[in-house]
Amino acid sequence: MEVAPGAWRYAAPPFLLAGPLGLLSPLATLAALALGGAVLLFFRDPDRSPPSDGVLSPADGRVSVIREEGNRVRVGVFMNVTDVHVNRAPLSGRVESVEHEPGTHRPAFSKESDNNEKVHIGLSTCDLTLIAGAFARRIHPYVESGDELARGERLGHIAFGSRADVLLPASFDAADVEVRNGQRVRAGETVLARRDD
């Protein structure tokens, strides 16, 4: 099983403690091993096969935001702790900016999450915002300005619960959105929006 970069940093402590805990209790050893395994499962990074066209979901989870912002449409995906947390590029394009914005750590599904810690990734084709949640204190972008990304390519991950928003290109409107609130989506495979040109 492939895992996201840095996964072993979180999984190693419970695995290393499993041996010494065996002196106290076999159950403590099992609990430590289970915790380490759960951490690796959380950081799993499966391969994905993008469809031929459309704006792809940047994250696994449920659609939690669809709203118009000026002449653009925002689609947000909430990731709970059981979802894959590796994020992918919705469209091919050049990375124009990667900006960290400090903030709070409210639950990522709530309205207050708009004030949470974020990383904004500006692509030449669309804009992506990775939002930390109540337990997600680390956003790990893999990209920097000047990188060229293919549609569906990995661009970062968020540790332990979060949200990923796509601000669609200005050429898209609400009628082009193909998902609905509450719908389950998969990063790099589910089409969020498509234009019939």
TrEMBL record:
Keyword Transport: no
Cofactor(s) the protein requires to work: pyruvate
Site label Cleavage (non-hydrolytic), positions: 161-162
Family: Belongs to the phosphatidylserine decarboxylase family. PSD-A subfamily.
NCBIfam families with a match to the protein in the record: anchor_synt_D, PRK05305.2-3
Name under which the protein is recorded: Putative archaetidylserine decarboxylase proenzyme
Cofactor binding summary note: Binds 1 pyruvoyl group covalently per subunit.
Chief place of localization: membrane
Assembly behavior: Heterodimer of a large membrane-associated beta subunit and a small pyruvoyl-containing alpha subunit.
Keywords for this protein: Cell membrane, Decarboxylase, Lipid biosynthesis, Lipid metabolism, Lyase, Membrane, Phospholipid biosynthesis, Phospholipid metabolism, Pyruvate, Transmembrane, Transmembrane helix, Zymogen
GO biological process, one term: phospholipid biosynthetic process
Pfam families: PS_Dcarbxylase
Example of a GO MF term: phosphatidylserine decarboxylase activity
The EC number(s) this enzyme carries: 4.1.1.-
Transmembrane segments: 23-43
Source taxonomy: Archaea, Methanobacteriati, Methanobacteriota, Stenosarchaea group, Halobacteria
Annotated organism of origin: Haladaptatus paucihalophilus DX253
